[in-house]
Amino acid sequence: MQNKTEKIEYLLQQYGNSLFRFCLFTLKNETDAEDVIQETFIRYLQKAPAFADAKHEKAWLFKVASNLCLDLLRYQKRHRQEELDAAQYMATAIENTEILEALLELPEKFRLALILYYVEGYRIHEIAEIIQKSPSAVKMRLQKGRRLLKNAYGKEEL
Fold first, then answer.
1. pLDDT at 19
2. Are residues 107 and 152 in the same domain?
3. Predicted pLDDT at 64
4. CATH classification at residue 21
5. Domain boundary residue among 49, 84, 119?
6. What pLDDT is recorded for position 87?
7. Nearest-CA neighbor of 26 among 142, 104, 129, 100?
8. Helix (H), strand (E), coil (C) string for the chain
9. Tell me, what CATH number does 99's domain have?
10. Is residue 114 part of a domain?
11. Which of 123, 125, 142, 145 lies closest to 134, judged by CA?
């Protein structure tokens, strides 16, 4: 069995970029995204959960990160803070910044579902577990999110 340091290094290598993208899209702030990822791995170390396979481990990490993001957003709503624009940060890495900007303007619940489905490749039932909603609610969020994105972006090919 690996020691804790090796395990965290492995998890960061495997899921770090995906978790960071997910948190950045959710929080729209690079520093907050980094803080959430750090807290996610701290909780991983504290709880030392046992998983059936890597798929469950990844889902657990995303669920914890999602919950931490939502907690931080609630806190920020109560305690107004200035946020950095994630679109500026990501503009150099993504070719079509218009779609990114439209995505970032969507309400958080639709943006979250779209990112988990299209960017991270989760299936509907997996997203339902992560965000603690029913699969039909996830389907509706994806449907409405696509419609809102299409309207915001103004293109029929989405």
1. 92
2. yes
3. 92
4. 1.10.1740
5. 84
6. 46
7. 104
8. CCCHHHHHHHHHHHHHHHHHHHHHHHHCCHHHHHHHHHHHHHHHHHHCCCCCCHHHHHHHHHHHHHHHHHHHHHHHHHCCCCCCCHHHHHCCCCCCHHHHHHHHHCCHHHHHHHHHHHHCCCCHHHHHHHHCCCHHHHHHHHHHHHHHHHHHHCCCCC
9. 1.10.10.10
10. yes
11. 125
Residues 5 and 72 in one domain: yes
Predicted confidence at residue 95, as pLDDT, reads: 52
In this structure, are 11 and 54 located in the same domain? yes
My answer on whether 56 and 113 are in the same domain is no
Q: What is the pLDDT of residue 69?
A: 92
CA angle centred on 27, ends 24 and 30, rounded to 5°: 50
89 in a domain, yes or no?
Answer: no
**Cα end-to-end span (Å), the chain:** 46
Q: Is residue 78 located within the same domain as residue 5? A: yes
Report, in angstroms and rounded to the nearest whole number, the Rg of the chain calculated over CA atoms.
16
pLDDT in tens, the chain (158 residues): 467 778 888 888 988 899 998 998 888 888 999 999 999 999 988 887 778 888 888 889 999 999 999 888 888 877 664 444 444 444 444 455 677 777 778 888 888 888 888 877 888 988 888 888 899 999 999 999 888 888 876 654 44
